[in-house]
Amino acid sequence: MALKRKHVRRAGIQPTVLLVEPRAEDLERTRALLTEEGFRVVPLTRFDAAAPLFEVIRPDAVVLAAQPPDYAAVATVRRLRQIGGSTVPLLYLVDPHDLEAWRFCVEKGQCVDLVPRTSTGAELALKLHAQLRLRDAVLRAAEGADAGTALVLHDPLTGLYNKPFLLALIGLELRRAERYGGVFSVVACSPQSLRAFRKQYGPAIEERLLVYTAVILGQTVRESDVVARVSDDEFAMLLPGTAAEALPTVLSRINARFELARFQVEGKALRTSLNLGAVCFPDTLGVPTQLLSGAIQEMRRARGAPAASRQESGVGVRREEGGLELEAVTLSS
């Protein structure tokens, strides 16, 4: 979640949503639903006009209908990110029964979150409100840090957010979910056998592995997610809108991305692996520290589980030779 200077929305101001939907009937239906939810909607039927209009109106969020066969929404997202960085939340609107569209957006959609098209539009409005509140909180905290009135937000080694700031964001998401409904998940992870790795290769290589872990996590999560380093060897992620039934897929995706990565130590290319654990609200209740501790406990429990059990849950552990050095690895988002 990169930061660019932009004023935080003032209370009482309608957030502006740029809605790009080529089907006129669906465009009008979604526009009406979002208007009822308190958004100011700028409707558009042409994807090629999205970038010029984006530069003119500078919306608070963008919703794009992702449809076969050309999936123009994905190319539009690339262009909008070049213009607006990551301070403007983006969402794909996808027909819930179109499995091809869901798979395409998950695999090639630039890690942008997906929302199913429904008759009420409740989930779309909920996710928009959640992402805008999270973005505003980050920008307020960043402005405070620049002015010297807030705590440092980032871990000095990895550049990720630190534990206190993650807990503050979990608290914000918790209050939003309790007031408006909805779900979110907290995921904890750590590189496998890090202490043995440090003992064998030394602290400099250990730090290199931690930085690499941070890079891969940042490339794997969605734009609306938050990644933080919460202890010497442990990381955590806040995933707004992620329900318990979606967690196995999320954990498998994170683990699969790690299994693609290798880095070289003393002439040997080692494949990294992760210990992973997660909790989901409202299945798990508590204050932010309890939710984070619950995810860490699940991760540590998985760390002690047999390998076969980890593989069945989508959190496999494997190390082998062959591959690229750390500095040479680049993974597409």
UniProtKB/TrEMBL annotation:
Molecular function in Gene Ontology: cyclic-guanylate-specific phosphodiesterase activity
Residue intervals of the Response regulatory domain: 16-132
Pfam families in alphabetical order: GGDEF (PF00990)
Family annotation (Gene3D superfamilies): 3.30.70.270, 3.40.50.2300
Residue intervals of the GGDEF domain: 182-313
SMART domains with a match to the protein in the record: GGDEF
Record InterPro entries: CheY-like_superfamily, Cyclic-di-GMP_PDE-like, GGDEF_dom, Nucleotide_cyclase, Rev_trsase/Diguanyl_cyclase, Sig_transdc_resp-reg_receiver
Any single biological process term in GO: phosphorelay signal transduction system
Entries under PANTHER family matching the protein: CYCLIC DI-GMP PHOSPHODIESTERASE PDEF, SIGNALING PROTEIN YKOW
Annotated protein name in UniProt: Response regulator ActA
